[in-house]
Amino acid sequence: MDIAIRQAEPDEFDALGEITAQAYLHDGLLDFGESDEYLGELRDVAKRAAAAEVLVAVADGRLLGGVTFVPSGGPMADIARSGEAEIRMLAVDRAGRGRGAGEALVRACVDRARATKGCVRIVLSTQRTMHGAHRIYERLGFVRTPERDWNPIPQLVDITLLTYELTL
Q1: Who contacts 37 (Cβ-Cβ below 8 Å, separation ≥6)?
Q2: Which residues share a beta bridge with 54?
Q3: Can you tell me whether residue 166 is helix, strand or coil?
Q4: Which of 62, 54, 55, 86 is nearest to 150 (CA)?
Q5: Checking DSSP bridges between strand 53-59 and strand 143-144, what pairing results, if any?
């Protein structure tokens, strides 16, 4: 099966938002489940697409997943500094996993970062339990940067996000 990576089309935003939300829900990545405020962010692909690049993985006419690529800061960046691009909200539909879509999406982000003038590094945040994603990042040469680990909800001490970077 050939996987194509391309920019998300507006008529795919709702489907991608639901794939992303369901991936996070089913993998137990939202501390407050269906009532988690972040669920709205995951579903709002149009908002992401207005501030960054949203890429999708498609095979046999079927949407497998997507990722948000933040080339140079702005409202979608969580940890990127000057000269850094950022990967956000990588998600693959459960039925589409194990086919290489996640890795293809990350590779596309790395390629875009390399093509971004002045970009020297690509960074990302991930949860401790996202072991499949960690394997992708490490296979592609990303290294852990524990000094950049952070907590998006400081009042909850157990939500520290791990960080990775790839120097280009």
Answers
A1: none
A2: 68
A3: strand
A4: 86
A5: unpaired
Looking at residue 132, its amino acid is: G
SS3 139: helix
What's this model's pTM, rounded to 2 decimal places? 0.94
Q: For residues 120 and 104, what is the distance between their CA atoms, to the nearest angstrom?
A: 21
Q: At what angle do helices 131-139 and 101-115 cross, to 10 degrees?
A: 50
Structure tokens at 145: 């940067």
Strands 84-92 and 121-126: parallel
**Which residues is 24 bridged to in the sheet?**
none
87 to 32, 61, 156: CA distances (angstroms):
23, 24, 24
Yes or no: say if 60 and 102 are a contact pair by the CB < 8 Å rule. Answer: no
pLDDT in tens, 116-144: 999 999 999 999 999 999 999 999 999 99
Count CB-CB contacts under 10 A for residue 122: 27
Q: Which of 29, 4, 24 is nearest to 108 (CA)?
A: 4
Compute the distance between CA of residue 106 and CA of residue 112 in angstroms, rounded to an integer: 10
- Reported as a single tens digit per residue, the pLDDT across 5-23 is 999 999 999 999 999 999 9
